Amino acid sequence: AFTQCAIEEVAGAVYLLGPLAVAPSLQRRGIGQLLIGEGHTRLAAVGATHVYVLGDPAYYAKSGFAAEQNVMPPYPLPPQWAGAWQSQPLSDGVPALSGTLNVPPVWDDPVLWQP
Question: Is the pTM of this model over 0.90?
Answer without folding.
Answer: yes
